[in-house]
Specification:
The protein has 251 residues and is an alpha/beta fold. The protein has a single domain, classed as Vaccinia Virus protein VP39 (Rossmann fold, 3-Layer(aba) Sandwich). The chain has 9 helices and 7 strands. Strands 3-2-1-4-5-7-6 form a 7-stranded mixed sheet, sandwiched between helices. Helix 6 links the parallel strand 4 and strand 5. Helix 3 packs across helix 4. The two termini are 30 Å apart.
Amino acid sequence: MATATEPEPKLRGDSAVDPKDASRGPKVRAMFAGIARRYDLLNRIISGGRDQAWRRRTVKMAQLKGTEGVLDVCCGTGDLALMFARHGASRVVASDFTPEMLVLAAAKAAKAGVKLPLLAADALNLPFADAGFDVVSVGYGVRNFQDIDAGLRELARVLKPGGRLAILECTPARGLIGRFANWYINRMVPWLGNKLTGSNDRAYSYLADSIQLFPDAEALKQRLQQAGFTDVRYRKLNLGTMAVHVGTRKV
């Protein structure tokens, strides 16, 4: 996140979706629908095969107690939700606002023999009662919220008092690592996306721009605190380009 002493991030300007557009939701949904079929493959390649390890770290930091219900928001193709199910959650529900992703998540859950209720839902207006879950997780989704603060408050709403939120997300990096990461996501990721999906690279330019505009790890911690979470902490991964944040809903 830019500060008073830092320039505003320079964006590519050729993204299919403007990350600054407050009404970009339908465009983001259409973008993810278009890349759903190759989403998992691209994740593995872009991350160097590390994305599943980062999800395992997220589950570990959520500190499951074995009899708890979990809601995985922005579940995509279901990897993080299935990981919670395999690590002892008594019940896992998953939601995403892209139906094409939910179709793939359902097939993956059926193949794994895991019961995974799936719902099409916007993270800013979840169709769940207040205080219904012990744990809420979001993997690579908060960055796509049309309103980050409203989304964090909605996640708090569906958590039980004392429940935990776990967020896995890209985070802007600084220094030499930051310069390399910016080169990678601005140049290599769009090129890989084009080759693997057969589409133009504009969807993957959105990835780069949305990361640059996203709050850094410390700023996201502060926004979680403002949204009603206590004991907020984070752990940076992948040389500081990823972060897992966990926080507890105020009792």
